[in-house]
Structures are given as structure tokens and as C-alpha cells.
Amino acid sequence: MEDKKVHDLVIVGAGPAALSAAIYTCREDIETVLLEKGVIGGLAAITDSVENYPGFPDGISGMELSDRLRAQAERFGAKIELADAVKIEDGSDVKKVYTADNQVYQTHTVLIATGNNYKRLEAEGEKEYYGKGVHYCATCDGPLYKGKRLVAVGGGNSAAQESLFLARLVDQVDILIRKDQWRASDILVERIKKTPNINVHFNTEISQIVGEGNLVKKVVAKNNQTNQSVEFAADGVFVFIGLVPNTQFLAGSGVELDERGFVKTNSDLGTNVLGVFCAGDVRSGATEQIASAVGEGATAALTIREFLDQVPARKHLDKPRLSMQTDRRSYSGA
Ligand code: NDP
Hints:
Elements (H helix, E strand, L loop, with lengths): L1 E11 L3 H12 L4 E5 L5 H4 L16 H14 L3 E4 L2 E7 L2 E6 L4 E9 L3 E3 L15 E2 L2 H4 L7 E5 L3 H11 L4 E5 L9 H8 L4 E4 L2 E9 L2 E9 L5 E5 L2 E4 L3 E3 L30 E3 L11 H20 L25
Parallel strand pairs: 1-2, 1-6, 2-3, 6-17, 8-15, 9-10, 9-15, 10-11
Antiparallel strand pairs: 4-5, 5-6, 7-16, 12-13, 13-14
The site of NADPH dihydro-nicotinamide-adenine-dinucleotide phosphate has 19 residues, from α5.
């Protein structure tokens, strides 16, 4: 169903970058709709504790931070709709965003802020036990395993931080890391070392997740130095091996992606498609920090504001703006 209205801005996603952009645009009377298919706040919302977001010296839960960002955006008039964007079409002056439930949003500008999703191991048994023994979010599913034994996979910050969270709930966590060292920050590695119910196994790669009926029982792994097979008893497996960008819906849109599937932008966060912008973790080169995503959301909003000032159909809304030094592309050409 196509809505006749042409929106000023449709933001795909409702994580920190998206909500931050909406706070800025809505405050400037730029009519803004956010489309979110999952959780408001994105992956940040399901992070147990965010300790490095400035302004919260004691840390803040990802859920609370997301709730606050959402409340702030809605206070200025942002409309958040539950919708799964499946396609973007560039009709030059007006773009169309199609959703899985056959809605079509017409808009002068689009901000892609869809973030990332969890990368899968592709190990035998992973698909079979997905959601019933194999998990990707400690905050969401860790409490199911109180008093049990878990295997965690990965050597980055997510694996370290999430394993520390799990260790507070369960009897034992065995962390399997395929390299001979951590990639996580020193502060987290030090905390892991001081946690008695975490054992770290380097050079260890999962080959199979084995269960009986609906329950995971063990993990079969291999030491990639000695080639020896090793088994770990486990009631559940938590996979923290990085993220993949949510850009599948951009197939056929003309928006340029990098070799890993992240959206390429210029320094003003414009994509190669005029009127389509991108901010946050889904952007090529993003630092994958909530603070950076929020900053990128603000930057994108300012770029979008300048772009919209040049849209003929919106000229009557012109009002004095804060000046910005830019070399941004104008509406009439790239
Ligand atoms: P990372 O990409 O940083 O780390 C991924 C880890 O998983 C690496 O140890 C990697 O090994 C391993 N891995 C990847 N693929 C496989 C595989 N198929 N089998 C086994 N192991 C695999 O991802 P994270 O999710 O940890 O972090 C993403 C970003 O978010 C980073 O920038 C991180 O700094 C940030 N972050 C920051 C936090 C904080 O500041 N507190 C908290 C959480 C995340 P290898 O090294 O061999 O590739």
C-alpha cells in the first residue's frame, strides 16, 4: 500500500545512530519516520552494561540508554514504526522504501542506520540447536543457564565482556579462541584472568555442537596447532565472533557497499545515491562504538538538513539555519 505523503526523512533502523539523528532532525521540524524490524536500540539495547559511553561514570544498561534515546527522539516528534524495510528504490527526487508487509514510504531522504547482526560459526549443530542451546546474546539468554556449564567462542571485546557477564550466572565458562591471543582490550582480559570460573583455551576451534534431543551436551573442538581433538561438556554455546552488516535490503538499490558488505559514504555520510545517507555500525569504516554511532547520527542529520533545504518541494519551509562549513553535494548534482 503506497502512502501518498512524501516524508522528509525515513530512517531505516532505530539504534543509537538512528535515534540520535532523529533527535536532531525532529528538533529542526524535519518530519522523521523510523522503521525498525526488531528491538528499539538495536544491538546496544541488549548489551548488559555500557561502561564507555560518556556521561555515565557508573555505566548504564544498554536497555536504559536505548529507552532514554527513544524518549528524547519521541519528545521532539519522531515516529517509530515496526516495519521490516526490504527494498529502497531511487526515483531521484523521491525515494521509495518498501516493507515486508507491503507498505511503501515515499521520502525526500533516507538514512540507512541498520547496524549489524551476529556472525554465525557455520559449525555442525549450530543451526540445529539455534535458540535451544546455541545463542548469540548473553543478556538475552544467559539467565537460562544459571548454575550450568557453558562454552563461549571468540577472542574480541564482545566475547570477553559477555563471558564476564555469563560467569556471574553460571558454574563455568570455557572460552574457545582460535588464535593464540586475545583481540579484546587489556582491561577486559585482566578481569577475565581474575575470574575463577572462566577457563580460556587458545588455538581452539569448534568443529561440532553435539546434543541429545533438544539439549546441547558437548562441544567437539580441535587444537589447530596440534590437530588434536578436544571435547568440552556444555549445556549451551554462546557465539561472539563478530558482526555482519544488515545491508541485504540494499540489493538492487544502487547504494555502493564495500567488499565486506558495509555501506560506503563520503565524509559527510552521504552515499553514492543522492539523498541516501548512512550512519553507525553499518557504515564502512565505522568504529562500532555507541558513542561514535551517536556522533555519526548527529553528523548525518546536519547533512540531511542541508540537503533538504535545497529540495524544491520544501523551499517554502526555509528558515535561518546554523551555518556549517561544508563541501556537501547540492540537490541538483553530486
Ligand atoms: P571482533 O571482530 O572484534 O572479534 C571477533 C572475534 O571472533 C575474534 O577473536 C575472531 O578471531 C573471532 N572469530 C571470527 N570468526 C570466527 C570463526 N568463524 N570461528 C572462531 N572465531 C572467530 O568482534 P566483536 O564482536 O568482539 O567486536 C565488534 C566491535 O565492537 C569491535 O570493534 C569491538 O571493539 C566493539 N566492542 C566494544 C566493546 C567495548 O568497548 N567494551 C564491547 C563489545 C564490542 P580472529 O582474531 O582470529 O579473527
